[in-house]
Specification:
- The chain has 104 residues and is an alpha+beta fold.
- It has a single domain (2-102), classed as Ribosomal protein L30/S12 (60s Ribosomal Protein L30, Chain: A, 2-Layer Sandwich), CATH 3.30.1330.
- The protein is 51% helix and 18% strand.
- The protein has helices at residues 5-16, 23-32, 47-59, 71-78, 91-100, and strands at residues 2-3, 20-22, 38-41, 63-66, 85-88, 101-102.
- The chain has a four-stranded mixed β-sheet with strand order 2-5-3-4, with helices on both faces. Strands 1-6 form a two-stranded antiparallel ribbon.
- The longest helix is centred in the middle third of the chain and has 13 residues, at 47-59.
- The termini are close together.
Amino acid sequence: MTVNSKALNLLGLARRAGRLSFGHDAVTDSIKSKASQLVLLSADASERLKNEMITLCEKFSADVLVTDCSMEDLGLATGMKRIAVLSVNDIGFAKSIKNLTREE
Protein backbone atom coordinates (compact mmCIF):
# COMPACT_ATOMS: atom_id res chain seq x y z
CA MET A 1 0.00 0.00 0.00
CA THR A 2 1.16 3.47 -0.79
CA VAL A 3 1.12 5.80 2.18
CA ASN A 4 1.14 9.48 1.24
CA SER A 5 2.43 12.41 3.27
CA LYS A 6 -1.03 13.27 4.62
CA ALA A 7 -1.36 9.77 6.08
CA LEU A 8 2.12 10.08 7.60
CA ASN A 9 1.16 13.45 9.10
CA LEU A 10 -1.90 11.81 10.67
CA LEU A 11 0.39 9.23 12.28
CA GLY A 12 2.25 12.11 13.93
CA LEU A 13 -1.02 13.56 15.22
CA ALA A 14 -2.13 10.14 16.47
CA ARG A 15 1.15 9.75 18.36
CA ARG A 16 0.78 13.13 20.03
CA ALA A 17 -2.79 12.15 20.96
CA GLY A 18 -1.51 8.93 22.54
CA ARG A 19 -3.38 6.70 20.09
CA LEU A 20 -0.47 4.59 18.79
CA SER A 21 1.27 1.46 20.05
CA PHE A 22 4.82 0.69 18.87
CA GLY A 23 6.76 -2.53 18.59
CA HIS A 24 5.95 -6.22 18.61
CA ASP A 25 4.79 -6.64 22.22
CA ALA A 26 2.71 -3.45 22.48
CA VAL A 27 1.04 -4.04 19.10
CA THR A 28 0.32 -7.68 19.98
CA ASP A 29 -1.34 -6.55 23.23
CA SER A 30 -3.39 -3.94 21.32
CA ILE A 31 -4.59 -6.52 18.82
CA LYS A 32 -5.49 -9.09 21.49
CA SER A 33 -7.34 -6.52 23.59
CA LYS A 34 -9.26 -5.35 20.49
CA ALA A 35 -7.92 -1.80 20.92
CA SER A 36 -6.16 -1.90 17.57
CA GLN A 37 -8.11 -0.41 14.69
CA LEU A 38 -5.28 -0.61 12.14
CA VAL A 39 -1.83 -2.22 12.13
CA LEU A 40 0.85 -0.78 9.84
CA LEU A 41 3.94 -2.76 8.86
CA SER A 42 6.98 -1.22 7.21
CA ALA A 43 8.08 -2.57 3.85
CA ASP A 44 11.42 -3.62 5.29
CA ALA A 45 10.06 -5.42 8.36
CA SER A 46 11.13 -9.05 8.56
CA GLU A 47 8.98 -11.63 6.81
CA ARG A 48 8.58 -13.41 10.14
CA LEU A 49 7.15 -10.26 11.76
CA LYS A 50 4.87 -9.57 8.79
CA ASN A 51 3.51 -13.13 8.80
CA GLU A 52 3.01 -13.13 12.56
CA MET A 53 1.15 -9.80 12.59
CA ILE A 54 -1.01 -10.66 9.57
CA THR A 55 -2.00 -13.98 11.16
CA LEU A 56 -2.74 -12.31 14.50
CA CYS A 57 -4.81 -9.59 12.82
CA GLU A 58 -6.82 -12.20 10.91
CA LYS A 59 -7.45 -14.13 14.14
CA PHE A 60 -8.64 -11.05 16.04
CA SER A 61 -10.33 -9.29 13.07
CA ALA A 62 -8.01 -6.28 13.00
CA ASP A 63 -7.13 -4.43 9.80
CA VAL A 64 -3.51 -4.65 8.68
CA LEU A 65 -1.58 -2.84 5.94
CA VAL A 66 1.89 -3.63 4.68
CA THR A 67 3.05 -0.18 3.58
CA ASP A 68 5.64 0.97 1.07
CA CYS A 69 7.32 2.97 3.86
CA SER A 70 10.64 2.00 5.38
CA MET A 71 11.18 1.69 9.12
CA GLU A 72 12.89 5.09 8.98
CA ASP A 73 9.89 6.69 7.19
CA LEU A 74 7.44 5.44 9.84
CA GLY A 75 9.85 6.46 12.58
CA LEU A 76 10.26 9.95 11.17
CA ALA A 77 6.47 10.39 10.91
CA THR A 78 6.00 9.38 14.54
CA GLY A 79 9.01 11.09 16.08
CA MET A 80 10.80 7.81 16.75
CA LYS A 81 13.98 6.39 15.27
CA ARG A 82 12.80 3.25 13.43
CA ILE A 83 9.41 1.55 13.53
CA ALA A 84 8.72 -1.86 11.95
CA VAL A 85 5.17 -2.24 13.27
CA LEU A 86 2.67 0.10 14.88
CA SER A 87 -0.96 0.01 15.84
CA VAL A 88 -3.46 2.85 15.46
CA ASN A 89 -5.79 2.56 18.45
CA ASP A 90 -8.41 5.11 17.41
CA ILE A 91 -11.21 4.48 14.92
CA GLY A 92 -11.16 8.04 13.53
CA PHE A 93 -7.42 8.10 12.86
CA ALA A 94 -7.56 4.56 11.44
CA LYS A 95 -10.38 5.39 9.00
CA SER A 96 -8.65 8.56 7.84
CA ILE A 97 -5.33 6.77 7.30
CA LYS A 98 -7.04 3.94 5.38
CA ASN A 99 -8.82 6.52 3.20
CA LEU A 100 -5.51 8.23 2.42
CA THR A 101 -3.73 5.02 1.46
CA ARG A 102 -4.23 3.48 -1.91
CA GLU A 103 -3.26 0.29 -3.58
CA GLU A 104 -0.75 0.64 -6.40
